[in-house]
Amino acid sequence: MKKRILLFVFSLVLLPQAVYARGVEIAPFLYLVRALLVIAGLSSLVYGLFSRKGSASWIFGLFCIVLYFGLGLYIGIGSAIPFVLFLLSGILFAVEFVVPGFGIAGISGIALMAYSLAASMGNPSVAAGTLGLSALVLFVLIRNLIERGEDIAFLEKLISPEKQYTQFPAACAVGDRGRSVSPLRPSGTAEIDGKRLSVQSVTGFVDANRPLEVVSVTGNQIYVKEV
User: NfeD-like C-terminal domain: from which residue to which, for each copy (predicted)?
Assistant: First the structure.
């Protein structure tokens, strides 16, 4: 497996030189490769947000992004500044994660990340197409993960002002009913029997102030459905 990964990396670095040496137009090929790296990298990073064991996704995603910027520098497209801006966007996301609520840091992080990727693309049309396709892929990916009921505790804290409530296993029982306090994406906060609890929806997204019923309790994790 490691040999295949190394072969893939070397092919991305050496193939452009081989194509250039044969006098073939290299720009379309490199634009395609770098666009695929952006899509694969962002998709892996987003998937890592939804996974309890997302270390492999994080590593692969960061690898694709670093390779994207590295190829740009290697062939003389852009400079190191966009890569620095991308790192700063990551810092802004970290700040947003620490400070509850989807505010200035989170929005600035998204804008800075998009700008850094576009600035390193070298062609405005290609940059717009790549970011547009990436947004579409991420939308489909996030929607499918939410519909599957994937745990998004990291993302929930990033975008929800509601704090996470802890509870003991006996905080409620199957069949208890209540209402959602915050949107469930699918994790969120609900009020059940007068107690605010962190819950997870088994039916995907649930809007705030909707009736809920507890369907199972596993450890300190409470699973609910909209009724």
Answer: 174-225
